């Protein structure tokens, strides 16, 4: 982006360069398994923002949507894994910690 340029007129390719770069066939997108939750969520947020603006060509929109769906699944898997690690503290009659149990997602 050049100095003095109207941000509303800057192309989607300029504002979302990391996503656009990741979406080209010359530079493959990083493997999902290598992305942290925060990295995947950041990419997903940029994709959603770009698609909501509606300035992306149809073919690119489809590619970005597919990448977004994969990122969402990856984030869901990471959240589930983190949830399984969370433990609930059991309190004894005296109010002190008695032990831990695995988180029951149903309760």
TrEMBL record:
<dbReference type="GO" id="GO:0006308">
    <property type="term" value="P:DNA catabolic process"/>
</dbReference>
<dbReference type="GO" id="GO:0005829">
    <property type="term" value="C:cytosol"/>
</dbReference>
<dbReference type="InterPro" id="IPR003761">
    <property type="entry name" value="Exonuc_VII_S"/>
</dbReference>
<dbReference type="Pfam" id="PF02609">
    <property type="entry name" value="Exonuc_VII_S"/>
</dbReference>
<comment type="function">
    <text>Bidirectionally degrades single-stranded DNA into large acid-insoluble oligonucleotides, which are then degraded further into small acid-soluble oligonucleotides.</text>
</comment>
<dbReference type="GO" id="GO:0009318">
    <property type="term" value="C:exodeoxyribonuclease VII complex"/>
</dbReference>
<keyword id="KW-0378">Hydrolase</keyword>
<comment type="subunit">
    <text>Heterooligomer composed of large and small subunits.</text>
</comment>
<comment type="similarity">
    <text>Belongs to the XseB family.</text>
</comment>
<dbReference type="InterPro" id="IPR037004">
    <property type="entry name" value="Exonuc_VII_ssu_sf"/>
</dbReference>
<keyword id="KW-0540">Nuclease</keyword>
<protein>
    <recommendedName>
        <fullName>Exodeoxyribonuclease 7 small subunit</fullName>
        <ecNumber>3.1.11.6</ecNumber>
    </recommendedName>
</protein>
<keyword id="KW-0269">Exonuclease</keyword>
<dbReference type="GO" id="GO:0008855">
    <property type="term" value="F:exodeoxyribonuclease VII activity"/>
</dbReference>
<keyword id="KW-0963">Cytoplasm</keyword>
């Amino acid at each position: 982006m050049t100095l003095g340029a109207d941000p509303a007129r800057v192309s989607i390719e300029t504002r979302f360069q990391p996503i656009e770069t990741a979406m080209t066939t010359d530079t493959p997108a990083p493997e999902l398994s290598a992305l942290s939750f925060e990295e995947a969520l950041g990419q997903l947020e940029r994709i959603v923002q770009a698609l909501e603006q509606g300035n992306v060509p149809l073919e690119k929109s489809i590619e970005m949507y597919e990448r977004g769906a994969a990122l969402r699944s990856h984030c869901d898997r990471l959240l589930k894994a983190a949830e399984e690690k969370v433990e609930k503290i059991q309190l004894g009659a005296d109010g002190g910690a008695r032990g831990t149990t695995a988180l029951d997602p149903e309760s």
